[in-house]
Amino acid sequence: MVITRQKHIRFDWAVKKMLRSKANFGILEGFLSELIKEDIKIIDILESEGNKESANDKTNRVDMLVKDSKDQLIIVEIQNTRELDYFYKILYNTSKVVTEHIRVGEPYKYVKKVITVSVIYFDLGQGQDYVYYGGTYFKGIHRNDTLELSETQKELFKRQTVTAIYPEHYIIKVNDFDDIAKDSLDEWVYFLKNSDIKDEFKAKGLAEAREKLKEINLPEEELPAYRHFLDQLRDEASAADTIRFESEYGKRKAREEGLAEGREEGVKEGLLQVAVALKQNGVAVDLIIKSTGLSKKEIENL
């Protein structure tokens, strides 16, 4: 008898509806710990303008602002549809959280550490990997050394490096993952892509997710909304695929027409060159017309 694993709900729906509950913090803590390579302990889920739900809330984007035990603010955003300016969006969201969480008159040392985690289901930029990290450091242009904190600054800021002060960014390009889980982070990426947790997966948070995020465990009153959510995602994916196809088709047609036009221009140029040679050798215009198909006016103008 073949035993089929039960389906799990999509992670973006879980973030939107379930993982904001303290009872389920362990799932998100596991994911963030595997990604950031630190033991993340969530203290609270904060509300900002970026993660409040509204009647017009878009299903293609889900975000959450997390405060952890180290007083770090972690923006978790899941984006399904393509945005060419997404890099700017990360910058904007980071800047907004930084400015929202420092009081007027406070010293700069109280600027919060911000980490952004972007789980994206579209192609962004150019690169061969599927998990990217971005941080800030200062490199000497003459001596190639890295600018470090003084011992006094380390004591004051409770940070060991300059990079640890500035925002850090993680981007997971889910669709570029090859479905081969080589480590614990890959096990999470596999789940993000397939909404499936294999029995052998051992990454932090996945054991809890395996049980709590089973589709069968959704309250019956939530099932219609979840099904509608999935339908909307399919509609958005279909619309995006249609736009991509039409764009590629249009480019191909334009290229083919351009090549055809180029061939016609090339043939015409060749006939003109033949006509010039015949004319220089004293061949009668009528014969040149018959040989090349050019008009009398075209030949006379050569």
Number of helices: 9
Unreliable stretches: none
Task: Name the beta content range.
Answer: 5-15%
Give the overall shape.
Answer: elongated
Number of domains: 2
Cα-based radius of gyration, to the nearest Å: 30 Å
Helix content: 40-55%
Biggest β-sheet: strands ordered side by side in the sheet: 1-2-3-4-6-5
What is the element string, with H for helices and E for strands? HHEEEHEEHEHHHHH
Rounded mean pLDDT score: 84
How many distinct beta strands?
6
Characterize the main sheet: 6 strands, mixed
Tell me the distance between the termini: 85 Å
Which structural class do you get from the secondary structure elements? alpha/beta
Annotation keywords:
302 residues, six-stranded mixed beta sheet, 6 strands, 12% strand
Q: Could you explain how this protein is built, in words?
A:
By secondary structure, the chain is an alpha/beta fold. The chain has two domains: 11-218, no CATH class; 241-300. 43% of the residues lie in helices and 12% in strands. The chain contains nine helices and six strands. The protein has helices at residues 11-17, 25-36, 86-100, 151-157, 184-194, 206-212, 223-280, 285-292, 296-300; strands spanning 42-46, 61-68, 73-79, 114-120, 131-134, 168-173. Strands 1-2-3-4-6-5 form a six-stranded mixed sheet, sandwiched between helices. α7 (223-280) packs antiparallel against α8 (285-292). The N and C termini lie far apart (85 Å). The relative contact order is 0.12.
Write the topology of this structure.
Elements lengths: L10 H7 L7 H12 L5 E5 L14 E8 L4 E7 L6 H15 L13 E7 L10 E4 L16 H7 L10 E6 L10 H11 L11 H7 L10 H58 L4 H8 L3 H5 L2
Parallel strand pairs: 3-4, 4-6
Antiparallel strand pairs: 1-2, 2-3, 5-6
Helix pairs in contact: 2-6, 7-8
